[in-house]
Design brief:
The protein is α/β, with parallel strands linked by helices. It has 11 helices and 15 strands. Strand 12 and strand 13 form a beta hairpin. The longest helix is centred in the last third of the chain and has 20 residues. The protein starts with a strand and ends with a strand. Bound molecules: nicotinamide-adenine-dinucleotide (NAD). The site of nicotinamide-adenine-dinucleotide has 26 residues, from helix 2.
């Protein structure tokens, strides 16, 4: 097999994969499924150019289904892998269905919405041995990987901590999808902060303890609309995350990194990493440190340097990895167990907000 045959399930965020698969040379899109393609393509997360392309789907040599289960029943032998961008409440079910047919699965994050669902997915994957990855696409970001290298190679010295902002304003249409404000399946902690938590685990290391406060007083939905999280890592480093989805602001990962289109670009930083030797602003990748000849200390001049990072399309990198996984060329870079660890942190954060106490993982 040189070009895996893929299907995309769910065409809202999932359309971003369709778009890339239609033009790439490393995979072939053979089918898509969405209960309501029209609604999916009107979703808040689909940009204008994607909407104008929607009529093309019907003219292409791909099969179109409504229920994703019908796609799997009819085409299990004609697809080499599926990408599931379905609402969070369908993540267990779609993993069961893929395992039933032995079809490799790239499942959108979060792996699941609750600890019991997450455990179930880990069990299904380990018992069925299907090739599986969770689409925490930032693991494929060159900016994130360069930051990880800077920390892991000691360019910052011993890491003292980090400060993370995820502050943006979701448009009203975003809330038309009811699962996004469901207490179990939605909310910015599970939908957005899970990315930032995964970045921190990936860059700094495993998390030992969290303490968090959230509120829902601004939007008045059942789910949180702002929160502050304190994190203690096993290696002793500390971090804070401030999040809200109700504030006009340029300080959130998607706008700052501009790793894929849709979010209005900003030119600011949203993460700061602090070490004993240097500090790093992300994603401008500005590194501040002292130079030997000038001496150290807050009264001495700071050397400012930009770490050079090649830009790339993270979603394409992620798709390429899924194809390599299908073809047996690589191991999953985001296994069920790894994604479950990130979900455990979100669960601990939620438990801390309920108890008012810090929660040890
Ligand atoms: N990695 C990221 O940055 C990122 C970004 C956005 C969303 N996501 C994840 O992608 C998933 C989908 O999110 P979204 O914002 O696109 O949600 P959405 O609700 O906008 O879209 C889900 C789509 O699935 C379709 N669907 C529902 N049931 C179906 C079924 N049985 N068969 C076929 N289609 C069905 C719906 O019609 C809808 O179009 C979620 O898990 C979300 O967390 C990830």
């Amino acid at each position: 097999m040189t070009k895996p045959r893929l299907a995309v399930l769910g065409l809202s965020h999932g359309y971003k994969f369709v778009k890339r698969l239609l033009t790439c040379n490393f995979a072939k899109l053979v089918a898509v499924a969405d209960i309501s393609i029209e609604t999916a393509l009107k979703s808040y997360s689909v940009d204008e150019s994607e909407v104008s392309e929607k009529s093309r789907l019907k003219d292409l040599d791909i099969k179109i289904f409504k229920d994703y289960k019908d796609l799997l029943t009819e085409m299990a032998n004609e697809v080499d892998g599926v990408i599931a961008a379905l609402p969070n409440d369908l993540h267990v079910e779609v993993t069961e269905e893929s395992a039933k047919y032995g079809v490799p699965l790239m499942l959108e994050k979060p792996i699941a919405s609750t600890i019991s669902e997450g455990k179930r997915i880990c069990e299904i994957v380990s018992q069925s041995h299907i090739k599986f990855m969770v689409a925490h696409h930032r693991r494929f970001s060159k900016l994130v990987n360069r930051s990880r290298d800077a920390v892991r190679r000691g360019e910052l010295g011993k890491v003292i901590g980090a400060n993370v902002l995820w502050v943006g304003k979701k448009p009203d249409e975003y809330f038309e999808r009811s699962w996004r404000i469901d207490k179990t399946y939605g909310g910015p902690l599970l939908i957005n902060t899970i990315h930032d938590v995964d970045d921190l685990r990936y860059i700094i290391g495993e998390i030992d303890r969290v303490q968090a406060y959230t509120t829902n007083q601004f939007r008045g939905n059942q789910v949180e609309d702002a929160g502050v999280i304190i994190i203690q890592f096993k290696n002793g480093a500390l971090a804070t995350i401030f999040l809200t989805d109700d504030c006009p602001s340029p300080w959130f990962y998607e706008a700052c990194t501009q790793e894929y289109s849709f979010f209005y670009p900003s030119h600011f930083d949203c993460y700061y990493f602090f070490g004993e030797k240097a500090s790093l602003a992300f994603p401008s990748m500005t590194l501040f440190s002292y130079e030997k000849e000038f001496g150290e200390g807050w009264h001495r001049p700071l050397h400012r340097q930009n770490l050079l990072v090649e830009r790339s399309d993270v979603l394409e990198e992620e798709l390429k990895h899924f194809c390599d996984l299908i073809m047996g060329k690589t191991e999953s870079r985001m296994t069920a167990d790894d994604a479950f660890e990130t979900l455990r942190v979100i669960d601990a954060i939620k438990r801390s907000t309920q108890s008012g106490k810090s929660v040890r993982l």
